[in-house]
Amino acid sequence: MNLLRKTSSLAAIAGVVLGLAFSWSETAATANSQNPIADLKLPPGFSIEVWIDEVPNARTLALGDKGTLFVGSREAGKLYALSDTDGDGRPDRRIVLAEGLNRPTGLAFRNGDLYVAEIDKLWKLPGIESRLDQPPKPVMIRADLPDKTHHGWRFIDFGPDGKLYLAIGAPCNVCKPEAFMAGPDKLEFASITRMDADGRNWEVVARGVRNSVGFGWHPKTRQLWFTDNGRDMLGDDTPSCELNKVGKTGEDFGFPYCHAGAVSDPDFGKDRSCSAATAPVALLGPHVAPLGLEFYTGTQFPAQYRGDVFVALHGSWNRSQKNGYRVQRVHLDGDRVVSQEPFVEGWLQVQNGNESVSGRPADVLQTPDGSLLISDDLGNRIWRVRYTGK
């Protein structure tokens, strides 16, 4: 486990570029503290460890070509870079690339450049991996993203088509469709859109999407799969959160008329039937708040895990009994969901009717060696899961 401290020779870089205050480099020192792993459970043969801690509000993950792990945050407003300088497979250096940002949860890496989405802005840091100590001047891609904070934190990634995909959540729990126009160039609330890397040629890929904070592409079919957070205030058990896949451009997934494929909204359901919307490929459970997902394509895990989806269930915030707080394995046969089960659980503990939460998984990322990294924005750390067979 690592406690992070400033190196004595480093100081804050003066000045603000496009509103980004570039800060200091930090390095990790090994220390012993209370073991946070004891309550976590995994299938036989798997092990989990704290890969690095003291990464405040660690949320979205993106891996650079040279092995740098970039980490976005939400409430902390910081952008981090983690690097392994001694080659032991664990980060021993943390750099705060920027701070004071507007919920920089959207991260994507492509051709040496890091793309970062705040609520209302999209920008990139060109050639960042070679310039971690002196970050380059950020290049603004878009400064006109919707500025609504309700479901306004972004998730972005590059697809197999080379386009940059971006989710725009609904600015409400549930609201009328005429409120969904978010801005120019076909920007719509409650949608997933895509564009060229320079910010041009926007196109709606999926609409009727209440709040997606994680998506990825099936390794064989190349279809887009995404998580969606179900609406609130219909009770503890309705509706379920969703895992969806996009079959055609512009497909409609039901919000606000229909939830979870079959739950007609009490306010808007009379205006459109659930049969008019694409149903989820899997129901993940009520109020579990699914965020990041990852298709497993590595060879470290046993063969039966290959092609499966791992989903970070961040956990409920207003359910009378908490739900989620785990990483879920969704087992596929080709591109068809056949089952699902907990993969890592134990961040939620219930003893004698009392609930306690020690962590909230937010994103899942496969590393080149086939391990899985899991960000934890409550525990302020990143976990690593490996298969050892023991």
Give a nutshell description of this structure.
By secondary structure, the chain is mainly β. The protein has strands spanning 2-6, 16-17, 20-21, 25-30, 46-53, 58-63, 69-73, 79-83, 93-98, 106-110, 113-117, 122-125, 139-142, 156-158, 164-168, 191-195, 203-207, 215-217, 224-228, 240-245, 251-252, 258-259, 263-264, 282-286, 290-295, 309-313, 326-333, 336-344, 348-351, 354-357, 361-366, 372-376, 381-387.
Shape: globular
Give me the secondary-structure category: mainly beta
Our measurement of the CA-to-CA distance between the termini, rounded to an integer number of angstroms, reads 21 Å
Total DSSP E strands: 33
Helical amount among residues, as a percent range?
under 10%
Number of helices: 0
Low-confidence stretches: 1-33
Tell me about the biggest sheet? 6 strands, antiparallel
- What does the average pLDDT come to? 90
CA radius of gyration is 20 Å
Percentage of residues in DSSP E strands? 35-45%
Strand order within the widest sheet? 1-4-9-8-7-6
